[in-house]
Amino acid sequence: MIKPGDKAPEFCLDAIDAHGQKLQLCLTELLTHQKQVVLFFYPKDNTSGCTQEACDFRDNLNRITAKAVVAGVSRDSVASHQKFREKQALNFPLLSDPDHKVLELYGAWGQKMMYGKPVISTVRTTVLINKDGIINRVWTNVKVKGHVEEILGELERGA
User: Which residue from 136, 103, 106 is spatially nearest to 122, judged by alpha carbons?
Assistant: First the structure.
């Protein structure tokens, strides 16, 4: 399990960027902006909680971009991400991790309760990585409401 102070695991995943272009995006590229990286892991495109979380990031991106870049990661395909991005006018990249390898590296894959039954799936998680590639903060079992404000507070404190 990753924790603050750890070097963030490198990855490269197929993605849709903020303009709808297909590309492969790596952590090293996100870090080239010389800003922190907010990497949020979510279960599924176009579901209520995930849509709310993505739209909260979209609506607050102008407040975040002074200090950080944002990217979302799920198991959904690039084609699904493209539809999600278009439908919600998302303004940050969405990365596809169908084999959940990056989800596992970042502790966002595991057991959770769904409709009263334990399942192995994506655990809503956000990781804040500093510009040197070191993990500053990990939020697990994220509750969508107020989460982006919590991240903004962390960025303002200079995490």
Answer: 103
Q: Which two tokens stand for residue 43?
A: 């279960």
DSSP per-residue string spanning 100-158: -HHHHHTT-EEEEEETTEEEEEEPPEEEEE-TTSBEEEEE-S--STTHHHHHHHHHHTT
- Is there a domain that residue 1 lies in? no
- Assigned domain for 2 exists: no
Q: Where residue 37 falls among pLDDT bands split at 50, 70, 90?
A: very high
Q: Does the pLDDT value for residue 159 go beyond 60?
A: no
Report the chain's terminal Cα–Cα distance, integer Å.
20
Note if 12 is an active site residue.
no
Query: Could you tell me the two tokens for 84?
Result: 């999600």
Residue 151 lies in a domain: yes
Query: Secondary structure of 59-75 in the HEC alphabet?
Result: HHHHHHCCCEEEEEEEC
Domain assignment of residue 127, yes or no:
yes
Q: What is the CATH number of the domain that holds 126?
A: 3.40.30.10
How many domains does the chain divide into?
A: 1
Residue 5: is it exposed, middle or buried by C-beta count within 10 angstroms (0-12/13-18/19+)? exposed
**Domain range for 89:** 12-156
